[in-house]
Amino acid sequence: MSEMSAHEHARLRRLVAPAFTPRRAAGFRPRMEAIVEALLDDLPAQADEGGRVDLLRHFARPLPMDIICALVGIPEEDRPRWREWGASGAAGAGRDFARAIPGIMAGAREAVAARRARPRGEEDGHEDVLGELVRAQDEDGDRLSDTEIVTMVWHLVLAGQTPANLIADAVAALLSHPDQLAAVPSDPRADARGR
């Protein structure tokens, strides 16, 4: 997509934009919260003998990938391999990167085929990006090719790697500034209701 003409790039962005509206994001929030809670609940099992947990490995890296996978429509049972592919793809070079690229492409093709077999996110009652893209293609096949759908999934997966470092940096900043950490409410929902 980054190498397309402005017109072609804009065409593809218009097709995926409905999945990223504020209304859709608000509707997706409960699913994001469930993913966060599941990862947090799993942290004690990841602790070493001294009770320490590698936050980057066990929370910050899997969280954005799991959220992107849920948003895109990657089945939950496939997400561990997408985590691996995403981490390798984010590296941008090396043997693991070279193996990840074909894996991501094949995984995206599998996900598209699975969404075609179950078009509207029927397994969980939620529409996802793949469902919208497949529907757009079905309505007007000239607007979107299979290759463009696979490429769109690839770009979303790579974009999903960026927040991992932001999460880790935010936690490090809070731990090094106890006054700011103390200002974080223990229950963000209670803080939001109070405003």
Task: Present the secondary structure layout.
Blueprint: H1 6-16, H2 22-42, H3 55-60, H4 62-72, H5 79-91, H6 95-117, H7 129-139, H8 146-159, H9 162-176, H10 178-183, H11 188-194
Helix pairs in contact: 2-4, 4-5, 5-6, 6-8
Order of helices and strands: HHHHHHHHHHH
Radius of gyration: 19 Å
Helical segment tally?
A: 11
The overall average pLDDT, rounded, is 81
Tell me how many strands there are. Answer: 0
Shape summary: globular
Going by helix content, strand content and strand pairing, the class is mainly alpha
Beta content = under 5%
User: Tell me about the biggest sheet?
Assistant: none
| Low-pLDDT stretches | none
* Cα distance spanning the termini: 41 Å
User: How much helix, percentage-wise, in residues?
Assistant: over 70%
3D structure, described in words:
The chain is mostly helical and 195 residues long. 71% of the residues lie in helices and 0% in strands. It contains eleven helices and no strands. The longest helix has 23 residues. The relative contact order is 0.12. The mean pLDDT is 81.
